[in-house]
Amino acid sequence: MYNKTPPNDAESRDAARVAPRPQTLAATGLPAAFLGDLIEKHLFEGGVLSMRELVSRTALSGRLLEELIGFLRQEGRIEIRAQHGDNQGLGYALTERGRGSAMASLMASGYVGPTPVPLDYYNQVVLTQSVRGRSVTRERMFAAFDDTVLDPALLDRLGPALNSGKAIFVYGAPGTGKTYITQRLARLFEDTCLIPHAVAIGDTVIRVFDPSVHRQAQDNSPVVMLTRGHDPRYVLCQRPLVITGGELTADMLEVQFDPATRQYRAPLQVKANGGMLILDDLGRQRIPPTTVLNRWILPMEEGVDYLSMNTGQHFRTPFDVILVFSTNLQPHELVDDAFLRRIGYKIGFHALNPQQYHLIWQRACEARSVPYDAAICQFMIDTLYAPSGTPLLPCHPRDLIGMALDRSLYLEDRIDLSTQALQWAWDNYFVTTPGSTGDAGAELRRSQ
């Protein structure tokens, strides 16, 4: 779960402009019957609820709820009840007829949450706040990575790639920093966007907002400022960063239906709309990489994703993401040239040079509160790396220093680095082949 960060006034005003609060039932874009069914489901789940509680649950204003409740009372589906305990005052509850109607609604759709937004409303909001309308300058790029040891030429390739709006394919050996760097690219998109709690396609509701993915930018309480601010059916969030790796399955790229709860959940790319979607460790999934890549050929080219539900109903949404593929394998081992041509940028991550390795070693020492000794770092390069032909990778200093300090703690030695401790760490860090004598010449690098 992420910490909430407050939006600035300009972002709040922009959100209200993009998705203003509905002042009438017609402005919600949803039929009154649909809204009435949703209120009934909330009362079925919550029992006797006050107007304030209904506002919080449904993300509708009190004025709109009063109109809907009046309609439901006329039909004999809702009655007024006196509340007890902490909630003194009047509340609303279902009548016997209302309970039957609510149960029928729940059988049709198990969704009970904030009022959804219609699909066409959602599509318009996504396009209005498109991530592809944001540009990255060289100054911002270098500022975002000023605490990271990177080849400037690599940043000068990633920056234009982000501005292109096209998919990015990053590749390189394990440990070259692909995952770390690509995840940090999201910090270049510092503004906010609106994520709906749910989207309605006809009578079907699909959950979109996911607290494990979306970083909320404010307390999105619909009780406050009932006539001002953005439509509380949306949550004002930092631009999404969705990461998936070896756990990815084909169904995660489609609308998912849970028959037990009778609820739909949005696929990963819809949750990522307005932000970045990173497919990490491509080629290690339980499905062939061609299946994943072919699934996104049309969305990448057209900027539109075509989805369907288990009922067979089809619909489309914007495909508004910065899509990043990351792999430890050679690109030609995964896909053919025809597909690679469809991806705008192919960016290789490579080993460090000695100067960069020294800088990372120094920062790793500072992080573990041990003195940095350039001679010891050079010993690693000259005595261990060079003879074995092992590349200088950015993950090594942190790991080797950590293992050397683990040994010092075990031996109750002074917490310090020594060539002996680092040699021991080296011998335990790499997997040796049968018959090797311990140097890294015939070693296989540890899988990472």
TrEMBL record:
Keywords assigned by UniProt, alphabetized: DNA-binding
Gene3D superfamilies linked: P-loop containing nucleotide triphosphate hydrolases
InterPro entries on file: AAA+_ATPase, P-loop_NTPase, WH_DNA-bd_sf
Annotated ranges, domain AAA+ ATPase: 164-349
Annotated segments matching region Disordered: 1-22
SUPFAM superfamilies linked: P-loop containing nucleoside triphosphate hydrolases, Winged helix' DNA-binding domain
Record's keyword annotation contains DNA-binding: yes
Organism domain of life: Bacteria
Gene Ontology terms, MF aspect: DNA binding
Name assigned to this protein: ATPase AAA
Origin species: Steroidobacter agaridevorans
